[in-house]
Specification:
Blueprint lengths: L2 E6 L4 E7 L4 H22 L5 E7 L7 H11 L7 E6 L2 H13 L5 E5 L2 H12 L3 H10 L4 H4 L1
Parallel strand pairs: 2-3, 3-4, 4-5
Antiparallel strand pairs: 1-2
Helix pairs in contact: 1-2
Length: 149
């Protein structure tokens, strides 16, 4: 399983990293982490929004149908309103995620890109999160190819 995350609740920042092999368990863990972060943050912060950077390293496969359904359910909830930057160089994956956003009305703002720098820049501009902090969290969540499988 190749999934890592770092959550800094005081600054409302969640960085998630995926690398092959990614399976349904990775996505399930990610959605649990995301739901918990949104729930705990929304309870404490009022109008400020959670900032999420999700990086899919390499050619990570898109989620299966069951996982896509759960993503749609989670992201269409009334209390789900973070800023989300999604980074993947897989155009098929970006297409699947775009289609999900068309199927269900989304309350959150998201941005999809093929580069980490563009994701970091967009998220920092939208949320006010420090770019240096995001890069440090990316460093902490890096997945070594040997451990990924």
């Amino acid at each position: 399983m190749a999934y890592r995350h770092a959550f800094e609740s005081e600054d409302a920042v969640l960085v998630c990293r995926f690398a092959e092999p990614v399976d349904a368990r990775c996505y399930a863990e990610h959605l649990d982490v995301l739901e918990n972060a949104v729930r705990s943050y929304n309870r404490r912060q009022g109008d400020r929004r959670l900032a999420v950077l999700a990086v899919f390293d390499g050619r990570v496969s898109p989620p299966d149908a069951k996982t896509r359904q759960r993503v749609a359910e989670v992201t269409s909830r009334v209390d789900f309103n973070p800023y989300i930057a999604i980074v993947t160089d897989n155009p098929l994956f970006r297409g699947v995620l775009t289609a999900l956003s068309w199927v269900r009305k989304q309350r959150h703002e998201h941005y999809m890109t093929a580069t980490v720098e563009e994701g970091v820049d967009w998220l920092a501009e939208k949320s006010g999160v420090n770019r240096v902090q995001l890069r440090e969290m990316l460093r902490r969540t890096a997945i070594d190819k040997r451990e990924a499988g």
